[in-house]
Amino acid sequence: MCGRFALYSPYPKLSQALRLPLEPEELTPRYNVAPGAWITAVRHPSDDTPLVMDEVWWGYRPHWAKDKAPEPINATIEKVATSNYFRGAFAHHRCLVPADGWYEWLPVDGRKQPHFLCRGDRKPIWLAGIWSERPDGKPGCAILTEPARGVAAEIHSRMPLALDADSLEPWIDPHLTDRETIRHVAHHLPAERITHWPVSTRVNRPGNDNASLIVPA
């Protein structure tokens, strides 16, 4: 799954990695982003509007859902294209969530040891997401997950779907709606580019948010 991540790269670094024209904006470094918060995303607000980097709520509940409908933070790649709850967003409202890495917890001797997973070259990671207008009119999103690959499988059975550079533009193309076509143009980041290390259990508390959280324990 993906339930906590960090985003501390400055805007110029993200813009360069994305290779798309976006207006600069200041981003506050965040080392402990938890669900139920506003997060940075890249998306087309509608088919005819330019690409933007703005904030979406990390919690997906489409505007047509009932009050007690679930508000998932993740959607699995196995079901996102066919589930009644997600398939509309998968076809029309895909987004990218930039991150520098994410956290997972490994059971060790009766406790859970947090690990930080990131690219070995420390470049930003682009996580595949879907978004929808929520009942309150604001955008909300879910991050896609897939079975864990490479060293990530040492920590958890699932991981966020991190896309390679050539998949970024097709993923957020609002005119690309066919399920099979999307599957063929969206490729995950090669597993060998991911590394990880144990970090302090201080990350367990969302209120802790500073660079020391990603320092190897």
Distinct helical segment count: 4
Structural shape: globular
Look at the structure and give the CATH class: Alpha Beta
Helix proportion of residues, in percent? Answer: 10-25%
Q: What would you report as the Rg, rounded to the nearest angstrom?
A: 17 Å
N- to C-terminal distance = 22 Å
SSE string, helix = H, strand = E?
Answer: EHEEEEHEEEEEEHHE
Number of strands: 12
Structural class: mainly beta
Tell me the CATH superfamily: SOS response associated peptidase-like
Mean pLDDT: 93
Largest sheet: 7 strands, mixed
What portion of residues belong to β-strands? 25-35%
Contiguous low-pLDDT stretches (5 residues minimum) are none
CATH topology: hypothetical protein yedk fold
Count of discrete domains: 1
Please give the CATH architecture: Alpha-Beta Complex
